[in-house]
């Protein structure tokens, strides 16, 4: 049995990591998909950095951070996803990066078509719809039939590509925030390439949960968060543009602080959260010490499977995310089929069982309750969830 699989079940091992986080008394948090906690040591480092920047002010920021420390940090982030340092630019989050990529993609002509699906993040949907007004393109919107499979997802996209020959650009979410579905990105991107369609990948929930290679995935444009599964402070993310495709993304609204050949011109120029950025070397050190995305993802999948396998076949419960290991991660959604109001049921989970979850709407398959364990979640928490779901169904 692989070491990571054995270790995922080792509650004592993971408790040593959980002990590094300060938790406020209250509900058991099963909504860790919003943002992740910083470890105690990262919080302390963040505080030190705030004090440093407050003392040194623009002297440090202009003399060291802009020309040295920020360059090293970008190189570390590039190493996190295995790409050249000059192919990443800092952003405040994945949404900002995705908006920059979408609005500055310059290969669209009036009459071209762009594609979104029901599972995309709302900010991504609105950005793609913005293109209709400002670029004269047609937005094609598709829904994924439920339940999905690897083959059905790929078939839906292949049929869509054939049906709409003027498609030039599509949004694709690696891990969908509504249900936790992991999209078969490599297969979809390969099919899109056959039809001359570029993909902008939303990797907000993927980084830190999934092990991936952008070259193997066939992705030239992507954006990521660092505050979900990497363990960084809020306001940190980055975008990726394959070096050979940089010219296909214009400088952001004429940005001129950097040369047109510098990827940093593809994001808005502003004063960044320097104290937060300065925590990243420690954040990444702790990420790798924990075992990186492989170890984190295996642990989260183990916790997910504890409750999913216990309730999937129970009458009154529908698990929205498939069990194909290619299509799921730690995030998984369900609904109570005997109850129309899922929000009311999420409130029952909180009031009756002290379990905090969140309802997600917007998917064609209907509203669902998203359940997301985290790195401080114990197997016992999932057993409590299983008991609660069994009783409430």
Can you describe this structure?
It comes from Pseudomonas reinekei. InterPro entries: Aminotrans_V_dom (IPR000192), PyrdxlP-dep_Trfase (IPR015424), PyrdxlP-dep_Trfase_major (IPR015421), PyrdxlP-dep_Trfase_small (IPR015422). Residues 58-368 form the Aminotransferase class V domain. The structure is a single chain. By secondary structure, the protein is α/β, with parallel strands linked by helices. The chain has 2 domains: 3-30 and 291-392, Alpha-Beta Complex (Aspartate Aminotransferase, domain 1), CATH 3.90.1150.10; 48-285, Aspartate Aminotransferase, domain 2 (3-Layer(aba) Sandwich). 43% of the residues lie in helices and 14% in strands. It is built from 14 helices and 13 strands. The protein has helices at 3-8, 11-18, 40-56, 58-81, 94-104, 122-135, 150-163, 185-194, 214-217, 274-277, 280-289, 292-311, 342-353, 379-392; strands at 28-29, 88-91, 113-117, 138-142, 167-173, 198-202, 221-225, 237-241, 317-319, 332-336, 355-356, 358-360, 368-371. The strands form 3 sheets. Strands 2-8-7-6-5-3-4 form a 7-stranded mixed β-sheet, sandwiched between helices. The chain has a 4-stranded antiparallel β-sheet with strand order 9-10-13-12, with helices on one face. Helix 6 (122-135) links the parallel strand 3 and strand 4. Helix 12 (292-311) packs parallel to helix 14 (379-392). It is globular, with a radius of gyration of 21 Å. The mean pLDDT is 96.
């Amino acid at each position: 049995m692989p070491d990571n699989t054995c270790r995922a079940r080792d509650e004592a091992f993971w408790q040593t990591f959980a002990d590094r986080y300060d938790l406020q008394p209250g509900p058991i948090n099963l909504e860790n998909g919003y943002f992740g906690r910083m470890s105690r040591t990262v919080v302390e480092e963040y505080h030190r950095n705030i004090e440093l920047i407050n003392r040194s002010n623009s002297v440090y920021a202009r003399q060291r951070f802009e020309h040295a420390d920020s360059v090293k940090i970008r190189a570390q982030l590039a190493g996190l996803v295995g790409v050249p340092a000059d192919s990443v630019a800092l952003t405040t989050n994945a949404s900002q990066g995705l908006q920059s990529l979408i609005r500055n993609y310059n290969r669209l002509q009036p009459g071209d078509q762009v594609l979104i699906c029901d599972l995309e993040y709302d900010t991504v949907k609105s950005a793609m719809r913005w293109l209709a007004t400002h670029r004269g393109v047609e937005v094609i919107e598709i829904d994924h039939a439920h339940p999905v499979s690897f083959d059905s997802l790929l078939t839906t996209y292949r049929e869509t590509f054939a049906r709409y020959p003027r498609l030039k650009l599509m949004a694709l979410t690696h891990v969908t925030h509504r249900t936790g579905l992991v999209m078969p990105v490599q297969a979809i991107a390969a099919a899109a390439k056959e039809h001359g369609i570029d993909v902008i990948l939303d990797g907000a929930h993927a980084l830190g949960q999934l092990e991936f290679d952008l070259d193997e995935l066939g992705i030239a444009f992507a954006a990521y968060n660092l505050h979900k599964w990497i363990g960084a402070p809020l306001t940190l993310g980055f975008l990726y543009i394959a070096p050979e495709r940089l010219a296909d993304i214009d400088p952001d609204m004429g940005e001129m602080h950097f040369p047109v050949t510098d990827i940093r011109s593809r994001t808005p120029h502003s004063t960044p959260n320097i104290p937060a950025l300065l925590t990243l070397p420690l954040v990444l050190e702790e990420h790798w010490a924990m075992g990186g995305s492989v170890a984190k993802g295996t642990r989260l999948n183990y916790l997910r499977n504890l409750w999913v396998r216990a309730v999937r076949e129970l009458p009154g419960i529908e698990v929205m995310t498939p069990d194909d290991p290619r299509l799921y991660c730690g995030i998984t959604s369900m609904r109570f089929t005997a109850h129309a109001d899922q929000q009311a049921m999420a409130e029952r989970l909180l009031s009756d069982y002290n379990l905090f979850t969140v309802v997600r709407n917007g998917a064609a398959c209907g509203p669902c309750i998203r359940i997301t364990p985290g790195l401080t979640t114990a197997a016992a928490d999932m057993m409590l969830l299983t008991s609660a779901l069994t009783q409430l169904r």
